[in-house]
Amino acid sequence: MVLATQPTKETNTMAKNPFGKTRKVDNPYAVYRDDRMGFEYRVLKTNQTPEREKTNPYASWELATKSPHTFGSWEYGAGYIKDTLHGGTYLDEAASDPLWNHVYGGANK
Hints:
globular, 5 strands
């Protein structure tokens, strides 16, 4: 799968973000876990294509986050990718969308 961010000569349009439509918390694009700290991040939407995220240090995802501080509830909001993928966080590939696993392919790829 090619995810181009530059307009093509044939269509002169930008590539569509494959993760740009918001999903519900029970069907996220990806699930990241930090068992050491007790956090779970569910990616509900990305705000840029994966290629654009690589060049933007402030790129963010729309997340549902559960932690010991949320007392079993989900907290919704935008989070910086770099904060979500901090040390100890890993991608739960079994709970994630196959396309996400293909594109991002691991916790800190």
